[in-house]
Amino acid sequence: MNFKATLVLAGILILLAGAVYYFHLTESGPKQENPPEIWSVDEAKINHITILLPLPKKRIAFFQDKDERWRFDDQTKQEVDLKRWGGIVILVSGPKSKRLIAEKVGNLAEFGLTNPQLIVILGVKGRKDPLEILFGGQTPGEDHYYVKLKHSTPVYLVHSSYVDVLRRLVLEPPRPVVKKMNVQ
To answer: Looking at the 3D structure of the chain, how many domains does it have?
Structure first.
């Protein structure tokens, strides 16, 4: 066999082995863990949502009627504006956390959880007690909030945009726009 042909074949074999080794390393590199789950509820089972802002003492609540339409749980029983409502039930069914802070925290006040900034209460079909979620203070970088379930000990982080959407539901409720007719 020709020496040059052997060298070329050996070079190709070395390149092929290097490529296989490289791709094997990148595939089996450090595995990323899934973000921790704070809570998870089947969105189809959620039938009531209450959101409280302790300061400035504001509250809003919604319920699902017998026709599975979402309405304000107030005197009006008005349907929500679907353009603004879309995705809210999925949102409250359970976010992924940035990370678990601690399985058990000695001083909840350090995380703003003794006087939460936002409280979400979910009524769930087939569940005796509602699910209550407490959102405490912001992290020093103000890009996350501390969060925990009321009757559970772990404290997690959730992105501030999640809390911003829930806060907006209270401050700017998704009421349908009433169109005024021009009479001339």
So the answer is: 2
